[in-house]
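Run log, item B.
One chain of 155 residues. Sequence copied directly from the ordering sheet:
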Amino acid sequence: MPADPILFTAGQWLGAASGGLALLTGIGFLATWGIRFRLVGITSFTALLSLSCLAFAVSYSPRVSIEGAVPVPVVFDNGGDLVIAAAPANLDPAAVAPTLEQVASNLRGSGRNSVDGFVRVRLRRLETVAPGLSRPVVLGEATRSLRDGSVVLAG
């Protein structure tokens, strides 16, 4: 997982600041300053910010972008084995496969409770049948493995 350099640098600077504040807090207790208890709060909050920035920098993974894919919203996700994304009405048929692959690649596997270890990603569009009535048309389907992250497009 790549570390985000800005957050990593901010975490280091905040860590150095919390170290300096800890030293100042220690001096405040030895000198019995009236602000010493406020310094405890400021120091602990700065240390918490530092650790949070470092943890997020290490755990951050950017979204996958695939050539030819169209950004589509996810309209249904059962948290397990099915995700449905809505395609725009004017979606080029050549963009269906890359769009499915992009949506499937950007899914996070942790926390999903799929029985077989796979998540099915469907791309659908609404087709008007009559005024005020429409039906979903599935344009394509992809399957993503939660074990190794591989994506297989269904023919």
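Observations after the first pass:
- Residues 5-30 form the longest helix (26 residues).
- The two ends are 31 Å apart (CA to CA).
Flagged for discussion on Thursday.
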